[in-house]
From TrEMBL:
Subcellular location: Cytoplasm, Cytoskeleton, Flagellum axoneme
Family listed: Belongs to the NDK family.
GO molecular function: hydrolase activity; nucleoside diphosphate kinase activity
Chain ranges of the Nucleoside diphosphate kinase-like domain: 12-150
Name by which UniProt lists this protein: Nucleoside diphosphate kinase homolog 5
InterPro entries: Dpy-30_motif, NDK-like_dom, NDK-like_dom_sf, NDK_H5, Nucleoside_diP_kinase
Quaternary context: Component of the axonemal radial spoke complex 1 (RS1), at least composed of spoke head proteins RSPH1, RSPH3, RSPH9 and the cilia-specific component RSPH4A or sperm-specific component RSPH6A, spoke stalk proteins RSPH14, DNAJB13, DYDC1, ROPN1L and NME5, and the anchor protein IQUB. Interacts with IQUB.
CC annotations in GO: cilium
Organism lineage: Eukaryota, Metazoa, Chordata, Craniata, Vertebrata
Pfam families: Dpy-30, NDK
Example of a GO biological process term: cilium movement
Length: 212
């Protein structure tokens, strides 16, 4: 029987993590744990939100009984916002966090981050986006300058590879075979940098001084 090979896909997700004010001093410890768990930290910033900004960030909780205390807690001191990336970043980060109630987390998930660092139902130490769409919203809120391109999967990923990646890579591999360099990996890396079709092209502008 002919084996059907799985079609290639791109598995990359980003999520937002927040080290909340009550464990701000544990920043290095938390970041070390994040890196050892297979995440990349793409962006990081330290900031302090106003109560109004917290209200906007947690607008989906508006009207709930804990909402005023939540905004007061989140605006009570500095925090660290992190953009994390890895395969299944959203679900894996939430799995590491454990239940949102730190008291419950200590009973049911004693090794989770909220069990280890959280205090109670409100002061649960860390934030994690609830879904991929929520992660995009959260990241844009904390990093308004971030460029979030949609991550292609399935047929869109294959189309992207066929249109933008394979032609350049094929040309590079062909040139590599003709050149036969001593260190093929370094040579190919240099070739791809040099022939990157998306490399910005600088246009020399003639100034009025030069024109004269």
């Amino acid at each position: 029987m002919q084996m059907v090979m799985p079609k290639p896909q791109i598995f990359v997700e980003r999520t937002l993590a927040i080290i909340k004010p009550d464990i701000f001093d544990k920043e290095e410890e938390i970041e070390d744990y994040i890196l050892r768990s297979g995440f990349l930290i793409l962006q990081k910033r330290k900031l302090q939100l106003s109560p109004e900004q917290c209200s906007n960030f947690y607008a989906h909780h508006y009207g709930k009984v804990f909402f005023p205390n939540l905004t007061a807690y989140m605006s009570s001191g500095p925090l660290v916002a992190l953009v994390l990336a890895r395969h299944r970043a959203v679900s894996y980060w939430r799995e590491l966090l454990g239940p949102s109630n730190s008291i419950k987390a200590r009973r049911t998930h004693p090794h989770s981050l909220r069990a280890l660092y959280g205090t109670d139902e409100l002061r649960n130490a860390l934030h994690g986006s609830a879904s991929i769409s929520a992660a995009e919203r959260d990241i844009r809120f904390m990093f308004p300058e971030a460029i979030l391109e949609p991550i292609p999967v399935g047929q869109r990923a294959r189309d992207y590879l066929n249109l933008y990646i394979k032609p350049t890579l094929l040309a590079g591999l062909t040139a590599l075979c003709k050149e036969k360099p001593a260190d093929p990996m370094i040579w190919l890396a240099d070739w791809l940098i040099e022939h990157n079709p998306n490399k910005p092209k600088l246009q020399h502008c003639i100034t009025e001084e030069e024109h004269q």
